[in-house]
Amino acid sequence: MALIRPSTFFRNVSTPTTAIGDFITVFRQAGKNRWRIAVAAAAVTTGIFSVMFQEEVRGNPRPPHVTYITVWDPHRTMAEIVASNIENQKRKDRLAAQEAEREALRRDMYKTLGRMSGMDVDAIEKKAAAERAADAAAQKAAIEKATARQARPATGE
After folding, report:
1. Does residue 49 sit within a domain?
2. Cα–Cα dist 138/25, whole Å
3. How many domains does the structure of the chain reveal?
């Protein structure tokens, strides 16, 4: 920092004229390397700004345009609604059965692979069945607890 005298550099830099004068003083003190330093500083600044300019920044996405379901007749009867719900439930049950069938096939493939690898597949299956039963029981208990909480009247606690 020999090129900059602290007592004169930061003294009264309240106007642009004083700041420009201080810059000229520092630029003259840099000696014969001042042009090299100025070119290096300009090159680094240009490089940084060119990298920032090439970055793509996107703002928040536009809020979605809400389209309400208009395929159902607004004047449907309760019987039509119940019939469509029953049809939908049958479709969901059919898809769940297909998924269970695929899961059983996948499980059989892994059992075969385990047997070929020398694993005790039956013990692993018993452990997995116990874990599934425990998960199902925990889920059932959570559902019962939630429905019991909803069935109780609010007491203001």
Report:
1. yes
2. 79
3. 2
CB count within 10 Å of CB 25 equals: 14
Percent of the chain with pLDDT over 90: 41
The owner of tokens 């692979």 is 113
Tell whether 23 is covered by a domain: yes
Q: Cα separation of 151 and 157, whole Å?
A: 16
34 near 57, Cβ under 8 Å? no
* Inside any domain, residue 100: yes
- What pLDDT, on a 0 to 100 scale, did the predictor assign at position 13? 54
d(CA 38, CA 84): 77
User: Residue 130's domain spans which residues?
Assistant: 95-151
pTM: 0.39
d(CA 130, CA 34): 79
